[in-house]
Amino acid sequence: MPAPDLPAIDYAALARSIKQWARELGFADTGISGVDLARDEQHLQQWLADGHHGEMDYMARHGAKRSRPQELEPGTQRVISVRMDYAPPDIGSAWSVIGNGELGYISRYTLGRDYHKLMRGRLQKLAERIRGEIGEFGHRAYVDSAPVLEKALARNAGLGWIGKHTVLIHRRAGSYFFLGELYTDLPLPVDVPATEHCGSCRRCIDICPTQAIVAPYRLDARRCISYLTIELKGNIPEELRKPMGNRIFGCDDCQLVCPWNKFAQQTEEPDFAPRHQLDGARLTELFGWSEDEFLRRTEGMAIRRTGYEGWLRNIAVALGNAPRSEPVLAALRARADHPSAVVREHVAWALQQHEASTVTGDER
Ligand code: SF4
């Protein structure tokens, strides 16, 4: 980031303009924070020391860069945080998919186009607008692309508070949104941090299928279905497979149950609309996809992150939890000799569940 060499600038007026330009670019909200994250750094260190990050080694890498923006990007004085809503119009129908064991549940944030590129491109455009106004300035745009404590920065910028489930919530926007950041060397006026409004509520803690929220504001990622279905490579711990139900990519239960999401804003971004009817597809159909089909149908979507092996592994678990039927058994048997040992192991587990249900007469 080059050293600033700027003429006299009315930073308060510039901050107002930045927020206006961000709205014009499709961001639902924008806030500005400083770079002090000392309290959050402690929280992060404790979380890592407890091993709650599981195999996400990247969370422990990069030293203090994650909690000290000026170490990631020297010269950074402020962070401009932006929000983009992703909730589809019928997000309430999520429960009916979760409740239907023949369907696969995919987290609502990943049903449309991958948000990373889209948001980063718009943050770059925002930076260009600023440059057009004041000339060259130091900046860098991030959307999950570097070690950034995005929720803490967004909270400090007034975009919401971090709930007991560790997701950011806004009183008038719920929690179904993506965050992005523009680090900058401009000494803009900062916004007032958001205050907390969880109160005595603990619905997210109680609903979590795998009890991954081990205490308020503390998530053991090793138990979280989002981690198990997306981040974890290899075998899913057996004791967590049944509670996964039919969730094959991510999990939204803690957000779906949050009372603040009655204020969630529907997305205005056509690119975030669900693709290929993935918001309620049959497990047997998804399990039948070849690798080519998987790659073709998930092109440009964040869902690709799990890889084909992970995709089959996750669906095998869901089929093990599905109501016993001939199509379910046939789909599993067809993959029993799959070249991947991980897929074979999960298929064998799934078939065992159905054998066990015949012996016990459990019709599920
Ligand atoms: S469900 Fe309740 S405790 Fe959890 S984040 Fe929402 S308001 Fe906070």
TrEMBL record:
Q: Where is the 4Fe-4S ferredoxin-type domain?
A: 186-218
NCBIfam families with a match to the protein in the record: tRNA epoxyqueuosine(34) reductase QueG
Q: Which gene encodes it?
A: queG
Q: Which residues form the active site?
A: 144 (proton donor)
UniProt-listed Enzyme Commission number(s): 1.17.99.6
Please state where this protein is localized: Cytoplasm
Give the function comment from the record: Catalyzes the conversion of epoxyqueuosine (oQ) to queuosine (Q), which is a hypermodified base found in the wobble positions of tRNA(Asp), tRNA(Asn), tRNA(His) and tRNA(Tyr).
Binding-site positions, [4Fe-4S] cluster 1: 198, 201, 204, 258
Residues reported to bind cob(II)alamin:
66, 144, 168, 179, 226, 251-252
Q: Which UniProt keywords apply?
A: 4Fe-4S, Cobalamin, Cobalt, Cytoplasm, Iron, Iron-sulfur, Metal-binding, Oxidoreductase, Queuosine biosynthesis, tRNA processing
Cofactor(s) annotated in UniProt: cob(II)alamin; [4Fe-4S] cluster
Q: Where is the signal peptide?
A: none
Q: In which pathway does it act?
A: tRNA modification; tRNA-queuosine biosynthesis
Record's protein name: Epoxyqueuosine reductase
Describe the subunit structure: Monomer.
Q: Mind telling me which InterPro entries this protein's record contains? A: 4Fe4S_Fe-S-bd, 4Fe4S_Fe_S_CS, QueG, QueG_DUF1730
Family stated for the protein in its record:
Belongs to the QueG family.
Q: Which residues bind tRNA?
A: 233
